Amino acid sequence: MPIIVNLDVMMAKRKMSSGELAEKIGISQANLSILKTGKAKAIRFSTMEAICKALNCQPGDILEYREHD
């Protein structure tokens, strides 16, 4: 898939665990795991906003586009 999710990278940079982030943004750890692994089909803007606020980052720090080879 050409959209790469770098959520785990940002979490590591901010030294934040999955449990802590899930609690801060109000979603389950299972749903956060789906986002982290790139298996999600969509993400709500409100969820992206909450993630960016919690991690003090921009959406582009979390999502990346790579052209298919």
TrEMBL record:
PANTHER family: DNA-BINDING PROTEIN, DNA-BINDING PROTEIN-RELATED. It comes from Formimonas warabiya. GO terms for molecular function: DNA binding. SUPFAM superfamilies: lambda repressor-like DNA-binding domains (SSF47413). It holds the Pfam family HTH_26. SMART domains: HTH_XRE. InterPro entries: Cro/C1-type_HTH (IPR001387), Lambda_DNA-bd_dom_sf (IPR010982). Residues 7-62 form the HTH cro/C1-type domain. Coiled coil: none annotated. This is Transcriptional regulator.
